[in-house]
Amino acid sequence: MRRSVPVIxxxxxxxxxxxxxxxxxxxxxxxxxxxxxxxxxxxTFWNGALPNGPDWRANPRLAALVAGTAPREIPRDExxxxxxxxxxxxxxxxxxxxxxxxxxxIVDETNRQRGAIIDxxxxxxxxxxxxGDLVAKIxxxxxxxxxxxxxxxxxxxAEIVQRRDFVIRSFEETQRTMRYACEVPVELEARLGDxxxxxxxx
Length: 202
Prior knowledge:
Elements: H1 5-14, H2 60-69, H3 76-88, H4 92-143, H5 152-200
Helix pairs in contact: 1-4, 1-5, 2-4, 3-5, 4-5
């Protein structure tokens, strides 16, 4: 259901949207409800030791698996199936070294994707802040003109109302985009948990 104009105006003037306000002491451009975590670490999801090297990119098989499982466009079930099949084909000695190295690669790629999403979310937050400043300015113009004016002043007031409504629509569109964008980091973190389980399955 579409919000009423007074409710939208209150949100804009307060600088607050349904995605939530920034937590004090954290990134002021982070509006999502979940805590701001700029970078994920493999150790958060992996049960056991992780290697310090070699670089997973140096192994063509691992690099291909990262490219074929980490992107969020690839369905989660499909990615888990590929990882499970990879583990089943490994020799006993390889099972101790390759899965954790592969997981580090998946985390690296996930962080790259999350970084782009975080940048977009921060841009949206700054856009909403600008919209709040703009609607405050337009509202001040509107309040300076009596509602019952006639003639040229009435036309001027109608133009201001139209501009205000446009800003409100822009706010709503930005808020919808932000609400969706805020779900992506959570989705990527859950995906990493699934990947770690698939690679560590007995």
